[in-house]
Amino acid sequence: MPGVLPQLRGGALGEAFRQAGAELGWLWALLPARDPAALAGEVLALLDSDGYGVTDRLLEAASPALGPDGRADLRRRLQERLAALPASRGRADLDGWHGRGLLSFRLGGLADLEGDVDAFIAAAEAGGCAETLAGDIAGRLIAHDRVAEALTWLDRAPARHEGKEFALADLRIAALDALGRKADAQSLRWAAFERWLGAAHLRAYLRGLLDFDDVEAQDQAVAHALAHPDRNLALSFLVGWPNLEAAARLVRPLRRTRRARPWPAPPGSRSAHEAASSRSDAAASGAGRGCAATRVLAAVSVCRPRRQVLRGPGAPSAGRRRAEDARCIHGPAPAGVPAQDRLVLT
Q1: What is the 8-class DSSP label of residue 302?
Q2: Does position 87 have pLDDT exceeding 80, yes or no?
Q3: Could you tell me the residue ranges of all domains in the chain?
Q4: Can you tell me the mean pLDDT for 31-37?
Q5: Which of 82, 78, 143 shows the shortest CA–CA distance to 115?
Q6: Please, what is the angle between helix 231-240 and helix 213-226, to 10°?
Q7: Which of 45, 226, 255, 272 could bridge to 265 as Cys pair (CB 3.0-4.6 Å)?
Q8: Residue 290: is its pLDDT beyond 60?
Q9: Contact residues for 21 (Cβ-Cβ < 8 A; gap 6+)
Q10: Considering the chain, what is the average pLDDT of its residues?
Q11: Using CB atoms within 10 A of its CB, is residue 308 exposed (0-12), middle (13-18) or buried (19+)?
């Protein structure tokens, strides 16, 4: 199916093919008499012929059918292939590195099926990707109560991007907790919260404090969020915590200078094109649709007390209330804007 297979890396069609690959592994387990070694060869042949991820789940699904003997035979075949590869020349040898990495990945998958951390480490080292997988190795060591070794691997893990640093920080916190180093774990939790404003880090930090200390620490956390340089991150934390009063304090000074979306220009005006460009620039700079929902939610909370007075008999219509929210967030509409456009909040 040459026209279909290149499209299988994502979407419902790819998921259907991957599910079919997994079901093949489950069907093998139903065979009354099967040769584990022959089945290992068939599994490897299918993995080799798949360049589109169709067999991503085959190895795990076929594990019961392979059994210990079949998995051992498959491991031997993969190790022989790895040993037959020429010596690696590092990252400059892209083809060789890819081959080693693929074999290492499959050996690591077999190690996970056996629950063998040492085999996973050996596979990573044989594939030349032990440093890259240091965080994964540490996580497996922590799960097997080998926490001191996990910390050593975490020291070797490269923090190549923000998401990786976040995950490594969580692993280090778990290792410190497991070693009974509660003060170090608490210190790292607070440092992680100061950097990423993660609610999970803060909640865990507060749980580790003595009675009444958590109230002061929570106030300190809110104050830190209000002063955080990433205003969108701070607003996301305050709305999700939730502390809408603090979120409103954050938004109030910005609601006229950083509008979620500018008022549209009157239809047919010469400035219509400039207004469209302004909306595009706002979105590109992070002041547009990406964070509009949270900013609007916080800003509307500023208007809420005034709106609650107007509830009950004789209260204004929903359209009037939306218009009041729009004025609260955007300010007065410029002259010439049609009434239906004055209710835009996005």
Answers
A1: H
A2: no
A3: 1-83+100-129, 232-267+275-346
A4: 89
A5: 143
A6: 140
A7: 272
A8: no
A9: 46, 50, 54, 55, 56, 57, 58, 61
A10: 79
A11: exposed
